[in-house]
Design brief:
Blueprint (H helix, E strand, L loop, with lengths): L2 E3 L5 E7 L4 E5 L20 E5 L18 H15 L4 E6 L2 H11 L4 E7 L12 H8 L8 H12 L19 H9 L5 H7 L7 H8 L6 E6 L7 H8 L5 E6 L6 H4 L1 H12 L10
Parallel strand pairs: 3-4, 3-5, 5-6, 6-7, 7-8
Antiparallel strand pairs: 1-2, 2-4
Helix pairs in contact: 1-2, 2-7, 3-4
């Protein structure tokens, strides 16, 4: 597994999957990036450069744990771009990783040729998602056998009376089947300190980020799952409105991991947006 040094000397790892021009991929969590797999087969169209965020997967734990903060992870992405020798790069983020990708695009707009935000988190731009939005979306699953217990847990969380995030997991998948349950079990974050410090004070500057995105010229894709209570389509639509050239796609029947729920549809959307690529380097 190839590695490179972050600006503070932390050794970071990444995986290369597939052929073609590279797409740098940022996982959520923060957790081991292996839960992304090959993004449903997107690797048949482009070479995926999948970063393990510091303290996760095969990347080292930093000496300074305050560097787990989201805005500081942007420096790691820039170090990866330089390591790969890419003058510009296509950048894809999922879930919490979209906060890193968004802040990277705001800070280094000329280094991004295309930006894909999958199951986008809106924390970096200060879009709040209220409990009513999540509950209304959850009602689309009311005929599922697991719905009563999961919805009760969701209501308790949104009202501040509960915190059983495990109980609402079925809402994150288009199908709560054996494959989804295996995926969930394998993708749980193991570094709780990295999770806790990701959104520490100072991690986000929504006003300045919004201002930068208003001038961001590269094409942007925001892809939300129809059923995703974590990243509701309504919130993704509001997010898309912050960019001059953004396309919103809502994938039918999908949750927070659309490449699992319908790989063919997801890959068709992502590959069409990303195209054959334009960045070339001898190192990847």
């Amino acid at each position: 597994m190839p590695t490179f040094s972050a600006p503070d000397g932390t050794l970071l790892a990444y995986r290369m999957i597939g052929d073609g021009d590279p797409v740098v991929c940022l996982p959520g969590g923060p957790t081991d990036s292996r839960y992304l797999g090959d993004l449903g087969g997107l690797s048949t169209h482009r070479r995926l450069i999948v970063l393990d965020l510091r303290g996760t997967g095969r990347s080292a734990i930093p000496e300074d744990t305050s560097s787990y903060r989201c805005d500081r992870l942007v420096d790691d992405v820039e170090a990866l771009r330089e390591h790969l020798g890419l003058p510009r790069m296509d950048l894809l983020g999922h879930s919490a990783g979209t906060n890193i990708a968004t802040q990277y695009a705001a800070r280094y707009p000329k280094n991004v040729s295309k930006l894909a935000l999958i199951g986008p988190s809106t924390r970096a731009v200060g879009i709040a998602i209220n409990g009513e939005t999540r509950r209304d979306l959850a009602q689309l699953r009311r005929n599922e056998p697991w719905f009563p217990a999961a919805f009760a847990a969701l209501e308790a969380i949104t009202t501040g009376e509960g915190s059983d995030s495990e109980a609402i997991t079925p809402f994150f998948y288009g199908r709560w089947d054996a494959a989804a349950q295996r995926h969930h079990a394998a993708g749980r974050p193991s570094n709780q300190e990295a999770v806790a410090l990701f959104a520490a004070d100072g991690a986000f500057g929504p006003e300045s980020t919004r201002a930068a995105l208003a001038a961001f010229e590269a094409p942007v894709l925001l892809l939300a799952g129809e059923y995703d209570v974590n990243s509701p389509p309504q919130s993704a639509a509001e997010f898309a409105g912050l960019f001059p050239a953004a396309t919103l796609v809502v994938q039918p029947g999908a949750g927070h991991y659309p490449w699992l729920d319908d790989a063919d549809r997801f890959v068709a959307t992502a590959a069409t947006f990303l195209g054959p690529g334009s960045a070339h380097t001898s190192e990847v």
